[in-house]
């Protein structure tokens, strides 16, 4: 029995953890949402929480609109287009640093009020909402980020 416990402890010690420049364990499973409907995210969103080093918010506010190229992100001065590698995966352009990596929609509630986005690298992740997020949706968003390997202890609420 002691050997089983010792092996379990050794394996736990080998698990990769996020590095200082990432917020996610790169060996954890991650997937974008399979039933993503890009037309339903059109509209105003505000950041509720994100993984960031400093500042009151990372994205702060975003407006998704649909156009001939796909989606546009008006308030963060960038564009996004759906990529064929999977549903809910967006290639973004015109954004600074880690925000320019492909965004994956990790979760959205059934009514498209709360949106969780992140990157496979773990250098970016955020919870967006259309209004005032309820505690049930914030709990669900945090659980999704945790499942995807994000260090949710480093998730910081937006201060707007």
UniProtKB/TrEMBL annotation:
Keyword match Lipoprotein: yes
Start and end residues of each Lipocalin/cytosolic fatty-acid binding domain: 72-157
UniProt keyword list: Lipoprotein
Keyword Lipoprotein found: yes
Gene3D superfamilies: 2.40.128.20
Domain of life: Bacteria
Protein name, per record: Apolipoprotein D and lipocalin family protein
């Amino acid at each position: 029995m002691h050997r089983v416990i010792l092996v379990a402890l050794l394996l736990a010690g080998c698990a990769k953890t996020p590095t200082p420049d990432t917020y996610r364990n790169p060996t954890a499973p991650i997937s974008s949402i399979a039933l993503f409907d890009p037309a339903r995210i059109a509209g105003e969103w505000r950041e509720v929480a994100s993984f960031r080093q400093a500042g009151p918010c990372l994205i702060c506010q975003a407006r998704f609109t649909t156009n001939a190229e796909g989606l546009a992100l008006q308030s963060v001065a960038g564009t996004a287009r759906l990529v064929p590698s999977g549903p809910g995966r967006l290639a973004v352009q015109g954004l600074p640093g880690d925000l320019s990596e492909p965004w994956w929609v990790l979760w959205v509630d059934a009514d498209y009020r709360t949106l969780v986005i992140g990157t496979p690298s773990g250098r970016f992740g955020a919870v967006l909402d259309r209004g005032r997020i309820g505690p049930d949706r914030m709990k669900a968003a945090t659980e999704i980020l945790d499942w995807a390997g994000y260090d949710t202890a480093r998730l910081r609420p937006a201060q707007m």
